[in-house]
Amino acid sequence: MRAQTGLTLMEALLVLAVTGLLAALALPAYEGHLLRSRRMEARLELMEVAAEQERHRARNGGYTADAWPLLAPTVSGRRRLTRNEHYEIEVQACPGQNLSQCFIAIARGQGKQAADECAELSLDSKGVRGAGGGETGHCW
Hints:
Elements: H1 9-60, E1 80-81, E2 87-93, E3 103-109, E4 120-124, E5 129-132, H2 136-139
Antiparallel strand pairs: 1-2, 2-3, 3-4, 4-5
């Protein structure tokens, strides 16, 4: 008598069920990892904007509302996208202060990142970090 080869229908369904279960467990963790890595990109770019603002202030005596302050000429209100375009960054005066003395750079999530609990991150000229919607320590 010849031995049977291949899978029975029941074995195939069992493999599909286990695969579906593993995918259902792994997908949320993967999406969470993506959100955190995109947040990291925004934090790095905010620090880059802050460093550029400091260089602009050293050369020109004040900050500017330009998120690309080292590009000539400066353009008030110009925004920038992070490298992978998951956040848009703008620069404005700190609340109740003059832009020549204090700036705040704000990164706002775009696309899927807009639904993240840390969809808005900020960094000001004093080094104060902020997060809209989430706990600052968690988001930063």
